[in-house]
UniProtKB/TrEMBL annotation:
This is SGNH hydrolase-type esterase domain-containing protein. GO terms for molecular function: phosphatidylcholine lysophospholipase activity. InterPro entries: Ester_Hydrolysis_Enzymes, SGNH_hydro, SGNH_hydro_sf. Gene3D superfamilies: SGNH hydrolase. Coiled coil: none annotated. It comes from Chaetomium thermophilum (strain DSM 1495 / CBS 144.50 / IMI 039719). The lineage of its organism: Eukaryota, Fungi, Dikarya, Ascomycota, Pezizomycotina.
Length: 270
């Protein structure tokens, strides 16, 4: 994740976050029979890290939508105060403290040049920024295609777009490298089966993993803003059931992507 030092700010009582994108933001899986968006786990991660702050996450993911032809029209409805023409159809007027943007998979498949996708993404990011929302841009994850000339062409476009996203600089703009965090081609077979649903989309466990990864990145950004660690709550002596239980993440294959989880026992806190 790339970021710069952020100015200190008063501790807020509430933070509102927009998760914006296509089917990967919507949590599309099982050929559309199920949706399991990552924002649900993201909100849980934030609430655990900062229990004294009320977090609200809003998900706007549209399966099949493209950055080039659909994203800006939808963004106008989230920040209508700058667009009087659509006030009568406004979707939300409360604003967002953060906007998380993930898009480009469908554009790449349609053959849209990476530079065009990037230019529209810049418009999306800038529109959120001018409306006083900080931006966390996500790079485009790998697609689980079989080795082929087509996959190589798509990968070249995706890599070019991700390079452009990573290199973008602006005040209150940050990047989390989702592509690096979910490396399909270097995953173990068991991880692929667990986290990937088809050639593009994830399983519910995969979307939860995205929520975990993005959540940890956003927690670090919030800490850098000066929120710090919440005041420590008084210790309670009550013990919890299964406090000595050994979790899968503690004794599994160290090459598994799930090794990124952290298990904290009640006894560790005493």
């Amino acid at each position: 994740m790339t970021t710069a030092a952020l100015p200190k700010q008063p501790r807020p009582s509430k933070l509102r976050i927009l998760c914006f994108g296509d089917s990967l933001t919507a949590g599309y899986c099982s050929m559309g029979a199920m949706f399991h968006p990552y924002h649900e786990r993201l909100e849980q991660m934030l609430a655990m890290a900062f229990p004294d702050i009320a977090f609200e996450t809003v998900e706007d993911g549209v399966p099949g939508d493209t950055v080039r032809f659909g994203f800006m029209g939808r963004m106008y409805h989230h920040f209508p105060q700058k667009n009087a023409k659509i006030l009568q159809n406004q979707a939300d007027t409360n604003g967002y403290d953060w906007t998380i943007v993930l898009g480009g998979t469908n554009d790449i498949a349609m053959g849209v040049p990476p530079e065009e996708i990037y230019n529209t993404l810049k418009e999306v990011w800038d529109y959120a920024l001018v409306n006083n929302s900080k931006v966390l841009a996500l790079t485009v994850p790998e697609a689980a295609l079989d080795p082929s000339a087509l996959r190589e062409r798509l990968a070249a476009r995706r890599n070019k777009l991700n390079d452009l996203i990573r290199s973008h600089k602006a005040d209150n703009f940050h990047v989390f490298d989702l592509h690096a965090a979910l490396p399909y081609l270097s995953m173990t077979p068991s991880d692929r089966q667990r986290y990937w649903d088809d050639t593009v989309h994830f399983t519910p466990a995969g979307y939860d993993l995205i929520g975990n990864k993005v959540g940890m990145a956003l927690v670090k950004l919030l800490e850098a803003e000066g929120l710090g660690t919440p005041p420590r709550l008084p210790k309670r002596r009550r013990m919890f059931k299964d406090d000595d239980l050994e979790f899968e993440e503690e004794n599994g294959d160290e090459t598994e992507i799930s090794k990124g989880y952290v298990v904290v026992r009640r006894a560790d806190l005493d």
